[in-house]
Amino acid sequence: MPFLEDVPVLGLVLKAYSPRLVVSIGLERVFAKGLAHGFMRFSIQPMLTRRYGLSGAMYQRLSTLYALGWSVNSFTAIADTFALFGYTKRWYCVVCTLGCGVFGLLYGLLPAKESSAKPAAAFMFLTALFLANVDTFASAIYSRRIRRNPASGAALVSWAWGCALFGAMLAAAVQGSLTDHNVTQVGIYIAAGLLFFLSTLFIFNVFGEQPNRVARVEDAKADYIIKRREERAPGQKQHDADLDFDDKKELVKAVPEGEDEEDLAGFVEPEVDSVLWGVIEINKEVVTRNWLIIIYCCLNTAAVVATAVVTILGTRWDMMWACVAMTIAVCGFGFFMLPLIVAKAGTFIYLFNIFYLQLPGVLNTFYVAKPKCLPDGPHFNFTFYNLMNGIIGNVCSIIGISIFAHCCQNLSYRAIMGSSAIIIPLISMFDLIIVERWNMYIGIPDHATYILGEGVIYSTMNMLISMPAMLLMSRVAPRGSESMVLALLSAVARVGSSTSSSLGYLLMETIWPVVTRGQCDYDNAPWLLIAGHIVLPLFIVPLAFLLLPASRICATLDENGDEVEEVIFPDADMDVQHAEADTAASPTRAEWNGTEQRSRVSVDDRPHKSGRVE
Fold it and tell me: Can the keyword Signal be found in this entry's annotation (predicted)?
């Protein structure tokens, strides 16, 4: 269907990747990251405050468990080193989708009384854990495709995020109405059913994931070729200078895409052992090369589990020390155990979430407070509140995606994320205006003020921050350990959000208390907003220039954050006619002269063909 290539974002993706890959990514993101995650996320506040009757502070405390559940996937992501039934992602995704559905059902089936709140929070944690693994494994599959066609990586990430936002909009529209009719748990049942269906996509390998042994050989070849070309680069450049134009034309015809016999001279395939009669394969090469990352994943997981236990059973001071320990584990150990660029990016993501303080126990409860609790409040119902966050907010997020895909290709990570962090405190002024009721003094309704600030501007800018972070981790992930690095991105972001929410809870319990039940008292809410949403985010700007690479987001990066050219392997199902046409095409003398005059960012200066990647 050629007309699809004219659709924004989708057209860019279809020109670079196969329709099967594009459709499979879209379905997974709509069902898992969009609908299932949306139903769970929009159910947390009404389940904890209405169904189980918790205060705003306790709601903020226990709601962090959902974010913590998304942080444990860094441990299960070591599946890159242990392939199950010949695949490093496929069968793990099957187990995780089924487990997520089961624990989601348990979360929604608990009796509606306050004593069920903590068990519900535990099931919420386990549901998020399995859902995060599904998201991470699927993201790791298409991150390998980005390596094969890095120029279109931003478009593929934009497509994935767009599908997730579309699913989230559907979930918001349905869940808000269910909540207003006091049947919030029905949305959770729908999410469980979608996850059971999603498992069939992985059972039949719709993503087309390569078998583990094939992927390991491909990764080893790419690393070996890069090393060989670096070793012979000085002599090769002198040899190229001595060739005349006709010799260069013959050289291009004779050398295939990506590799040649000289590149692979002396290459030895990586060792892959199998145990339990071939059920599990152990990638020794991945373990040996990334053992520090594996240890870091285990330490991060231990810290997350300990924090979850403290959140459910500990005191407020236990939570404070847990936040300190978590910060040391994430930021301190990262610089000793991770590649430098990964450690810097992870630290930035963590601190970004810390410095934008999460205050759901204040804002979420304020906006939906009943007239008998807060007579002069906005009195939003859940249908409007979820629709604004899930539809208008996500529509603006899609606008942010389109801006990112079409306008930000040649901008640096520092420029995008640093400038976005400057705008966020300005956007937070809209929340302060509503809480102080200044908008009512000048005749602007609460609904209009909320839509303009939180719904429109913040959603657009937040996406311009999230997507570069995702793309950066895809660029710097060591070969064969994509799941681990992408899981670290997700885990660090969620841990930062959870820690931020815990710090907000401590402020609500000690310095600026807020009453959300009975006769409500939000007098301290403005101080929480000023400190957490306006002052603290200003520290993000210098962090962006200190921790993020100055490289463009469209560039392939090495372990130091420098731009390099990626070694690309053609797929077996590449369009043969397109490949043959490119191979047979002979460059003109003007083209050769232009090629020689270009600045070289890699030791491999041969022209690469652009092929369709599945």
Answer: no
Q: Is the pLDDT of residue 98 over 90?
A: yes
Query: What are the structural domain ranges in the chain?
Result: 2-209+291-477+481-557, 213-283+570-597
**Cα(518)–Cα(495) distance, rounded to whole angstroms?**
32
| Side chain identity, residue 235 | G
pLDDT in tens, 345-402: 888 888 888 888 888 888 888 888 888 888 888 888 888 888 777 777 767 777 777 7
- Per DSSP bridges, beta strands 563-564 and 82-84 are unpaired
At residue 480, the pLDDT reads: 55
Burial of residue 372, with CB atoms counted within 10 A of its CB: 0-12 exposed, 13-18 middle, 19 or more buried: exposed
- Close Cβ partners of 236 (under 8 Å, ≥ 6 residues apart): 229, 603
What's the CA gap between 555 and 562, in Å, rounded?
9
CB 116 within 8 A of CB 99: no
Task: Report d(CA 90, CA 140) in Å as an integer.
Answer: 11
Element (H, E) at 275: strand 272-275
Say how far apart CA 493 and CA 469 lie, in whole Å.
10
Question: Distance (Å, rounded) from C-alpha 79 to C-alpha 273?
Answer: 14
What is residue 110's DSSP assignment?
S
Superfamily covering domain 2-209+291-477+481-557: MFS general substrate transporter like domains (1.20.1250.20)
Maximum average pLDDT range among 154-158, 159-163, 396-400, 402-406: 159-163
Q: Report whether 359 contacts 60 (CB < 8 A).
A: yes
Cβ pair 78, 484 in contact under 8 A: yes
The pLDDT assigned to 560 comes to: 59
- CB 462, CB 116: distance < 8 Å: no
**Is residue 500 within 8 Å of 356, Cβ to Cβ?**
yes
Q: Is 480 left (phi over 0), alpha (psi -120 to 50) or beta?
A: left
